[in-house]
Write a structure and sequence with these properties.
Blueprint: E1 2-4, E2 9-11, H1 13-30, H2 35-44, H3 49-73, H4 79-106, H5 109-136, E3 161-164, E4 169-172, H6 174-190, H7 195-204, H8 210-235, H9 241-262, H10 267-290
Helix pairs in contact: 1-9, 2-3, 3-8, 3-9, 4-6, 4-8, 5-10, 6-7, 6-8, 7-8
Amino acid sequence: MIYLPIAEMPVSVLLVLLVSGCVGFVSGLVGVGGGFIMTPALIFMGVPAPVAVATGASQIAATSFSGIMTQTRRKAVDWRMGWLLATGGIVGSASGVWLFERLLRLGQLDLIISLLYLVLLSGVGFLMVQESYALIRGRVTRGVSILRRPARTVAHVLPFRIAFPRSGLFISVIPPLVLGFGIGVLSAIMGIGGGFILIPAMIYLLRMPTNVVVGTSLFQVLIVASLVVILQSAATQTVDLVLAALLMAGGVIGAQFGARVGAGLKNEHIRGVLGVLLIAASVKFLWDLVIPPTEYYVLGGGLW
């Protein structure tokens, strides 16, 4: 057992390493950051939601830094687009941390986080299961998403258009800024990197080529997650460095195994399993929201 000074609770080191390792395994298996899995897992373990959100961002920042180094060597980053997304993300994360602090002081943060995860996990999980089922049944050509990539989007018709030579685009700066802002707000409130939202949006809304999408997304996530950790530490003091170190250790090891196993599995099967897990997690959030707690009052210090 080890005591978490910010979460103000003892936890089993082996349990935290096991959970973070499993999340890292899923992250390596699917190729996403895993923040949208790690934060709910910490909440289910009893870690206060504010600490789970703020501490999860530190793991996302570390994972993104490792990934961006690889993508940079491959020259798979559109730096102009990345900085534009990061600019919106910086404003969004600052706004999100302000909202996070307000909700924390009003005592409504746990409810808001649970509702957001309920909607987000159930929605993403359903789409993953639907696409996986369609691929397995042969209704969709393998390697092709059920979404259709339009020839032109709103990004091509709005004003303030500039060129993005690395992506071969000439689009408005407004959609990337708005997209980055939204991801920044979600990162601050929910403790997610947002890559599983950002990557599809970059492909289908901005029409970026897939060879630069992952690297550009990682750059934006790195900037936003790092800023969220700094702002949360200063504004709410909810970043638990002891917990963060354990999460990073388990996550890195698990990701390596996940990447090796994922290389031998079919993508539709991987997405289907992840979709089922997300739906199951959303059911747990729904259960906690509708079932009366065993204890109506909790005495303790801190902001929560």
